[in-house]
Amino acid sequence: MTERPSFPMNVTVEQARQMLADLLPVRSAEQVPVQQAAGRYLAADLPALVSHPSATESALDGIACREADTLDAAPGRPVRLQVVGESRAGVPFSGSVETGCCVRIYTGAPLPPGADAICPVEQLQDDGLDAVWLQRPASPGDVRPEGGDFRAGEVVLRAGQRLTPSRLALAVSLGHALVPVRAQLRAALFSTGDEVREPGEPLAPGQVYDSNRHGLAAMLHEAGCEVLDLGHAPDSLEVLSARIEAAGGADVLITSGGVSMGKYDFMRDLLLEHGRVSFWKVRMRPGGPALLGGWRGLPVFGLPGNPVSSLVVFQVIVRPALTGELPFTLRLRAATPFRALADRAAYWRGVIEGGTVRDYGQQGSGVLRSLSEAGALVIVPEGQAVAAGDEVEVMLF
Ligand code: AMP
Ligand code: MG
């Protein structure tokens, strides 16, 4: 390419995310059974339909009594309370607790009327019959007040939040049997490269297993997409065109490989000729030659073939665009120096240890095990250097 390109080149990570997000369809909402909603994104705020706890209840096993009755209890000067019944989870005590009395109570059981404090079973001397002795005052702090977690009507989960296992549990606890979630994006996926083989096939020298496609499929699932796996395509203009055509019904197509400067890197010219190119190359390392374009109505994101680049560009650019969630980052002290080139941000593989982050060592974009062993990406903005002892921004990977 000697003449001036007809598309933007060397965009920033933020521009790349936004340009991809702008090409994606608006997702409608659908109601799904909460049991099937793990990993999905809420399409609306979720209010609590009930309060939790639904009644003031005990936080432990012991007795429920009136605190005022127990204030004089001390080691060697025990206070005696008459046991008049029991309250257990799901089966409350039917009466009320009068002065000098108590009921046996268990975790999660409603606090009976009249009682306002709990004495844990470990602190009781029990005569085995109908009385207990307390060596210290009962505590009003050992109850869980009604609505202390949330009250009916309160909005507890927000539109756009992903239903992680703990949020899914919370949605159930709020009382929802059906939850409104965003329709899943249908993401088509294929990998390219004459050297690329399926798992289990024998490898000839120079060949490589299709780690990108299977890693990316897992990342797409994790990002809440429905994955249309179109397999692997050799480096042939005809096969690549046909494969892109086959992705026609999807909302977005993700590809791996063939976006660089090599003679057999056909993706860019193919899009340029038969579709359009929105940008080529992102100012980040690893991952430079990523490509965004379109083929008829279909947005196409071409990830680099190098295994680290492909997964890192997905994590840093594609995933946030698909999900609307920016990657979670934290600031840590650097144990080793990190730097970025003048014209691109660096995403170093780093190891978090003892509250600091250090350089993993091997930063080659083909060293896939580095992603598995490092666990973190250290983000250095373009042109910046970080000395050991400085704080850096870190993304868990
Ligand atoms: P490319 O971007 O197609 O030039 O590929 C760059 C490097 O990534 C080459 O070493 C390829 O063998 C390797 N590579 C390409 N595609 C894959 C893939 N699907 N899985 C693993 N490695 C790949
Ligand atoms: Mg290739």
Automatic annotation (TrEMBL):
What UniProt keywords are attached to this protein's entry?
A: Magnesium, Metal-binding, Molybdenum, Molybdenum cofactor biosynthesis, Transferase
**Gene3D superfamilies with a match to the protein in the record:** MoaB/Mog-like domain, MoeA, C-terminal, domain IV, Molybdopterin biosynthesis moea protein, domain 2, Molybdopterin biosynthesis moea protein, domain 3
Supply the Pfam families for this chain: MoCF_biosynth (PF00994), MoeA_C (PF03454), MoeA_N (PF03453)
GO MF term set: metal ion binding; molybdopterin molybdotransferase activity
Q: Which cofactor does it need?
A: Mg(2+)
State which pathway it belongs to.
Cofactor biosynthesis; molybdopterin biosynthesis
Q: What is its EC number?
A: 2.10.1.1
Q: Which residues form the MoaB/Mog domain?
A: 188-324
Q: Which SUPFAM superfamilies does the entry link to?
A: MoeA C-terminal domain-like, MoeA N-terminal region -like, Molybdenum cofactor biosynthesis proteins
User: Does the record carry Coiled coil as a key word?
Assistant: no
Q: Tell me a GO biological process for this protein.
A: Mo-molybdopterin cofactor biosynthetic process
Catalytic reaction list = adenylyl-molybdopterin + molybdate = Mo-molybdopterin + AMP + H(+)
Among the entry's GO cellular component annotations, what is one? cytosol
Role, per record: Catalyzes the insertion of molybdate into adenylated molybdopterin with the concomitant release of AMP.
Give the family this protein belongs to, as stated in its UniProt record: Belongs to the MoeA family.
Protein name per its UniProtKB record: Molybdopterin molybdenumtransferase
